[in-house]
Amino acid sequence: MEHKLNFELVPDSCWYSNLRSILSPAQWDVVRREAYARADGKCMICGAPVKRLEAHERWTYDEENEIQRLSDVVAVCKACHEVIHIGRTTLMGGEERASEHFMKVNGCNYAEYRKALGEATADHRRRNGVREWKIDLKFLEKFTK
What we know:
Layout: H1 19-22, H2 25-39, E1 54-62, E2 67-76, H3 78-84, H4 86-91, H5 95-106, H6 110-127, E3 134-136
Parallel strand pairs: 2-3
Antiparallel strand pairs: 1-2
């Protein structure tokens, strides 16, 4: 089943290497503000109007070539961001709230939530087999033109 809202478990070796650690604060500001402008005051996943959006980096993984590719930066509400980063959310004691949001946004039940989480966890484990991902930031080229 395709879900509107998904878990995005980053391989362990990629933790702490996000755009905010690569770009200057001014460069990150340009990227996140562009996402906020596209969102027009609504979460780009669930569509909820919110006063405070959060910028989320979307990554894809080419496991064969060991490439972690930045595919987008999207503006999301706090509730969707907590689902996306379910590992951190669980450590912070928010899994129940996140699971409820996942089920609401995706129109699914708890069994489907657990299945999706299991699949995301399996992907995460497999991707952890790559010792060091090469990073592809071609997405950012549109900000330098």
